Amino acid sequence: MKHYVHSYWTKYKQLYKKGLKGIAAFLAIGAIIVFVLATIASRGMGVIFNEVMARQTMMRGTVTVESLTATPWGTLSFTDLVWKDPEGRELLTVPDGKIRVNMWDVITRNFKASAINGIELNDATIVVDLDDNNRLDFVPASPDVNKPLNEVEPRSKPPKKTTQERQEELGKKVRNFNWDGQHLNLTITLRNNQLEIFQKNRHYVMRNVNSKIHLDSNRAIRIDMETGKFGGTAIGDGLTLKGRVDLKDVLKHRMPQLDLQFDVKGVDPSSLGFGDNIHDAMTLLTKVTGDFNRPLAKGRVTMPVLRIPALTFENVVGDVTYQDGILNFENVNANVYGGKLEAKGIYNLDTRAYTITGIAKDLDSSEALKTPEFVVPVSANLNFRSEGQPRDMEVWGNFWSGEGHYMLIPIKNITGNFHNKGRHLSFSDVKVNTNITTISTDALRIDNGQLTMGPLNITSHGGSNFIIYDEESFDELDENMDRIKEGMKQASENSKRASESAKGLKDVKIPDDVKGSIKALKRQMDSVKDSVESVKIN
To answer: Which of 213, 253, 281, 309 stands 20 to 30 A from 412 (CA)?
Structure first.
């Protein structure tokens, strides 16, 4: 029995070893056959590539390459790929790149879109057009792709046609790229590409586009993209786009659903129409959701500094939402001249029109005016408006203050209105209330840095008042006030020295130089009196 079992086990091991060897030989032969077929296929890849391009239906026109090499494992490397429409216009140019395919599909000549596993484009120029539903198409590049970014047209030039003609043209438009529901499952890699985008009447050119996009047309698109500087409808330092687009049931006419993080960095406010010379960088950090054809973005807007005429804001932070071309700003807060700003506003990306309202509280007048002698806390209601042209920005509102002082003169409060457009700043209904007088004017302007004043009303609390009309009297009065200020300063210093020298003495004798300063001060006061004798008394 023992001999019988041993003999059986020996035969079993021999058969088992033969079986393993047979399987290994079969696999090896199969691998060799596949390798040989793949090698043969790769050597004839140029012919296969041309056949595939002739039979494909997604890309209208012709696709050619300068050179093409392939590996047995399904990687095709090409140079100078050019896609042209039937009219001969270039739709895509790629200096070099790679296409990864399923070699079994190539060997079996099963040429379908699903045979492509990956596409890599290096240093390419890609121009896409998005229709009203954000469907993608490829179009010829505009001359702007070769211009500096600050010279790129902010809007695509509309055709000189009637609305009816335009609608008929859209209905007959032949698309250069047609998906037609074919299953796509591939990874698209972009390295140092240039991207031009047309979307409605918006226009962008982006440099240094790098991305990895995984597309499964039955499930979702996963995007990880970052760009360098861009120009056109907006000018900025770059943007990032990361997240997922849900494509489930798209063939059942359900819109793709967005779940993306979209950040735009270093946007130039002047490029959006916010003033003619405002270039402080703005950053938008948003979460994008909703339907692909009507995205909703919510997030934050930040600016380290924002300088507009007569005002400098710091640490600007607020909430922002975007939909249908409208940016809505809420809860915007900033520091301004030691005080605080609270603001909100609406901006139209297409027309560039905007309205912004806000209130600034407790601004330090000495910091704002760079005049340490004038110290009052100022608050103001602010309004900004533009119809879309940078130079038509209009700023207006009213202001009021608390108690403070100008030099040695106590101030109870200041009120008034202001209006600024271009380089013309005007004040109206300005009133300066002190303990003994009220000074008011309806005409105070600063045009291109030059101060112009109208009649100045000075009313004492006792009831009398007078009006200064001509500007020469302002100049003379200003000179006398400067002399008075110097005289008071000198008198104070002389008095201080006299006080120190008189310590310990019972009888203090006023020094001659102090007497001289007081006499000079009296003469200056008399001069002021003479200068206002010509003033009209009511």
So the answer is: 309
What is the share, in percent, of the chain residues with pLDDT greater than 70?
A: 65
Q: What is d(CA 354, CA 254) in angstroms, rounded to the nearest whole number?
A: 34
Helices 512-531, 471-501: crossing angle, 10 deg rounding: 160
Q: Of the candidates 188, 169, 58, which has an alpha carbon nearest to the alpha carbon of residue 112?
A: 58
Confidence bin at 536 (pLDDT 50/70/90): very low
SS3 13: helix
Q: What is the pLDDT of residue 178?
A: 76
CB-based burial of residue 91 (10 Å sphere; 0-12 exposed, 13-18 middle, 19+ buried)?
buried
pLDDT tens by residue, 130-152 = 877 777 888 899 999 889 988 88
Coil, helix or strand at residue 349: coil
Question: Three-state SS for 445?
Answer: strand
Q: For the whole model, what pTM was predicted?
A: 0.73
Q: Which two tokens stand for residue 178?
A: 């047609």
DSSP secondary structure letter of residue 115: G
CA–CA separation, 192 and 187 (whole Å): 17
Q: Are 214 and 171 in contact (CB under 8 A)?
A: no
pLDDT tens per residue across span 89-111: 999 999 999 988 776 666 566 66
Nearest to 81 by CA among 92, 69, 72: 92
The mean pLDDT value for 341-356 works out to 91
Of 96, 100, 41, which is closest to residue 66 (Cα–Cα)? 96
pLDDT, position 392:
78
Residue position matching structure tokens 């009021």:
400
CA dist., res. 3 & res. 506, Å (int)? 143
In order of 18, 230, 382, the CA distances from 7 in angstroms are 17, 81, 104
What residues contact residue 471 under an 8 Å CB cut-off, 6+ apart? 452, 453
Residue 242 phi, psi (nearest 5): -140, 140
Secondary structure class of 478 (helix, strand, coil): helix
Torsion of Cα atoms, 99 then 103 then 104 then 105, to 10°: 30
Between CA 265 and CA 287 the distance in angstroms is: 14
pLDDT of residue 373: 78
Band the pLDDT of 287: cuts 50, 70, 90: very high
pLDDT at residue 401 is higher than 60: yes
Give me the DSSP letters along 153-204.
Answer: -SSPPPPS--HHHHHHHHHHPPPSB--TT---EEEEEEEEEEEEEEETTEEE
Element (H, E) at 518: helix 512-531
DSSP-derived 3-state class of residue 438: strand
Long-range Cβ pairs for the range 279-282 (8 Å, 24+):
280/304, 280/305, 280/306, 280/307, 281/236, 281/237
